[in-house]
Description:
- By secondary structure, the chain is an alpha/beta fold.
- It has nine helices and ten strands.
- Helix 6 (161-179) runs parallel beside helix 9 and helix 8 (212-223) runs parallel beside helix 9 (247-263).
Amino acid sequence: MIDLCLESVYNWPIMELQDSPQSALSTAPNVTVVVPTYNEADNIRTMVAELLSLDVDNLNVLIVDDDSPDGTGDIAEQLRAQHPKRIQILHRSGERGLGRAYVEGFQRALAAGADYIVQMDADFSHSPAYVPVFLSKMADWDVAVGSRYVPGGQLDERWSWWRRLLSWWANAAYGRIILGLQVRDVTAGFKCWRREVLEAIELSDIHSGGYVFQVEMAYVAEKLGFRVLEVPIYFEDRRIGRSKMSVPIKLEAAWRVWEIKWRYRRLRRSPLSGAMTGREGGQ
């Protein structure tokens, strides 16, 4: 089911980022996979095992748990005890939410010296098999996005027609039209970032707390002019448990898109990203 061959290319800035980690380091770059969790006790062991088995040097996992009542945090601690050099845990008990979990996870990964930061869900809707594919692109790109809406991208066949329509509308229509985004999968939560991009974004200024966090991050990265590559993925429905995408969360995301557009109306390109040059391929 997984097609790792096709990709949608946005040939944006040509200039290389300063102090590229691949040129500055003689060893493999440090990779941190940030996995936020809330009630993922049935998935987290298998997810961590698959990530650690990848043929990727210097790959570490940071689990950001929002005080899961099902014991996910305790399982994460057991995993850290088994792999103390490769697994870190961030237990959050204050302001919860996906957006804040990612922001704090990104900040922790940057402070620990990560060169590349991968973000992904714990429920296997994002296959760990794509992580090496993303990393193989990072010599030439600033952000790799696991995309459902470029040629080669696929949604789980079990999705209803209504769910497919709603997802398409939120990504290919609503979000892209309002914000003028070039990326097709605006709510994609499976990404790989260069550390320089996350540093330029100024994570402390990211306010979205729910799933609209993905939209805000995509919009800021584009506004700053960074090079974004969409890699087609097969998006599997979660294997175990129920989706956390409730109707109120979806409605919140819809109106917050307008807030994002207003908040960043004066944002200018980062000096790290060079000048935008257009788009190529897969369009």
